[in-house]
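Structural prep section.
Before we set up the soaks we want a predicted structure of the protein with 6-hydroxymethylpterin-diphosphate in place, mainly to decide which crystallisation condition to try first. Input record follows.
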Amino acid sequence: MGIVNVTPDSFSEGGATFDPADAVAAARAQAAAGAAIVDVGGESTRPGADPVPLEEELRRVVPVLEPLAGEVPLSIDTAKAEVARRALALGVELVNDVTALRGDPAMAETVASAGAAVCLMHMQGEPRTMQRDPRYADVASDVAAFLEERLAAAVDAGIDEERVLLDPGIGFGKTVEQNFELVRRLDVILALGRPVVVGFSRKSSLGRLLGDPDARTGPLAASVAAAVAAYERGATVLRVHDVRETVEALTVARAVYAA
Ligand code: HH2
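Run finished without errors. Recording the tokens verbatim:
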């Protein structure tokens, strides 16, 4: 899964694809480099980010989705049902909701009635404050219990279980150690029986592990290593900024592990 952030303030590339033409070109380049799907988002969820109003989010993403629909498989990264509804009407296949259907009471029905796929992600707290003091009794079991409950809520709302993906939410209310533990113990989440998405790309835990306690991002090689480690432990979707490098690494990993 390639990432195209149509935002001025995303944590890693801050504004590089804020212009719609740049975002469309980036999505096409990611598809050509081997992305199976491209995740387009108009609201940053980085730690400390402020919410974006509905009209502004639509103004950002619709001009990017329109020219790509039917050409590039697309996912919409949104917590707003109206943004999801417009995206699905344009042919987007997957709703990537970092609130796991808790952010907007109309989201579950929007996904269910469109027969769309959905990614449910774990987050402790909310983006403005989530990194202040994350605490768990046992991070892998707590995240799995949350995802199990959200999966049941999605199915109750009429979403086909076969269309649900689960994501431990790397960096969303977790310490560096907790993020690595979640990848190490991915089996606890895989036991829920759904495909698992992992997004470690460029996240600050990588830069912090490498020795900078104030890192806001992580470098490319570290991101690729995290994607391979997650793949090796059973993740089926790797959400990444650097598609070509990740596809190259995963092709090699797959030749080794999936023989
Ligand atoms: N991470 C981010 C945003 N959306 N969705 C899923 N399913 N999993 C993730 O790990 C995830 C996500 C944050 O990364 P990015 O989109 O690059 O940054 P920003 O939110 O600042 O735009």
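Observations: The chain is about 45% helix and 10% strand.
Flagged for discussion at group meeting.
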